[in-house]
Design goal:
By secondary structure, this protein is α/β, with parallel strands linked by helices. It folds into 2 domains: 2-107 and 220-247, Rossmann fold (3-Layer(aba) Sandwich), CATH 3.40.50; 113-216, Dihydrodipicolinate Reductase, domain 2 (2-Layer Sandwich). It has helices spanning 11-21, 67-77, 90-99, 113-128, 150-162, 220-233, 243-247; strands at 2-6, 27-32, 43-45, 57-60, 81-83, 104-107, 133-140, 168-171, 184-191, 197-205, 208-216, 239-241. The model has no long low-confidence stretch (mean pLDDT 93). Pathway: Amino-acid biosynthesis; L-lysine biosynthesis via DAP pathway; (S)-tetrahydrodipicolinate from L-aspartate: step 4/4.
Length: 249
């Protein structure tokens, strides 16, 4: 299986490259990035129209600013796409849905298996913890550009989908008029050091608190998920897929 890796020179791209190099069922035959890499074991292109290799699937773990280029290329060449980049707009998400009518598209804001189990847990908790105040706290490294994380938004949306009454999202708080409102869900972003990713969902009730937490200790959990997603999406029919479908959750 032949992979085009978008964002190959970034931290996640290098981690994915290392994982694929250990496998015998796939290889990265080309990369796409804004800069060349002299020590890359495969050709790195700065323009997608220059790609000559046969590609079975694309893994995009780059920057949301490259979204249109990747999607245009996948659509034109009819290549299955794993879109793992975060920070996409609603317009971008809508375009992926439209794209999935013509090619297989795998889309998730978090490639970790554990995080996707967490999504199921918070959905169940919302049904059983009526009246509890809910806060989501996410922590990432100091180089992450988007906030809140795509995973934090996934968690918030999963809670809302299970809620009898929808929550209003509040992104951080400040000032002297920041008292919590009814049906408010707080989402808070922490940035520092080399934190790979940590998400805590806090349920605060009268005299008792419950926390559901997932911690990624390295980027390998996301890279592994992206590689498995590429193997999965390459043999699917046109449509929009995610981790829940792949894992049968």
């Amino acid at each position: 299986m032949k992979i085009l890796l978008s964002g190959c020179n970034g931290g996640m791209g290098k981690t994915i490259s290392s994982l694929v190099a250990e496998r015998d069922d796939m290889e990265i035959v080309a990369g796409f990035d804004s800069s060349q890499s002299p020590d890359s074991p495969f050709t790195v292109y700065t323009e997608l129209e220059d790609v000559q290799e046969k590609i079975d699937a694309i893994i995009d773990f780059s920057h949301f600013s490259a979204f249109d280029k990747i999607v245009d290329f996948a659509e034109d060449k009819k290549i299955p796409l794993v879109m793992a980049t975060t920070g996409l707009s609603q317009t971008d998400e809508d375009r992926l849905k439209e794209l999935s009518k013509s090619i297989p598209v795998f889309r998730t804001a978090n490639m970790s298996i554990g995080v996707n189990v967490l999504l199921g847990l918070v959905s169940q908790a919302e049904k059983m913890l009526q009246g509890f105040d809910i806060e989501i706290i996410e922590k990432h490294h100091n180089k992450k550009v988007d906030a809140p994380s795509g995973t934090a938004l996934m968690l918030a949306n999963a809670i809302n989908e299970s809620a009898a009454e929808k929550f209003t999202f509040t992104y951080g708080r400040e000032g002297t008029s920041a008292k919590r409102q009814d049906k408010e869900l707080g989402i808070h972003a922490v940035r520092g050091g080399t934190i790979a990713g940590e998400h805590t969902v806090l349920y605060a009730g009268d005299d008792e608190n419950i926390e559901i937490k997932h911690t990624a200790t390295s980027k390998k959990v996301f890279a592994k998920g992206a590689v498995e997603a590429a193997r999965y999406i390459a043999v699917q029919k046109n449509g929009l897929y995610d981790m829940k479908k792949m894992l049968g959750l």
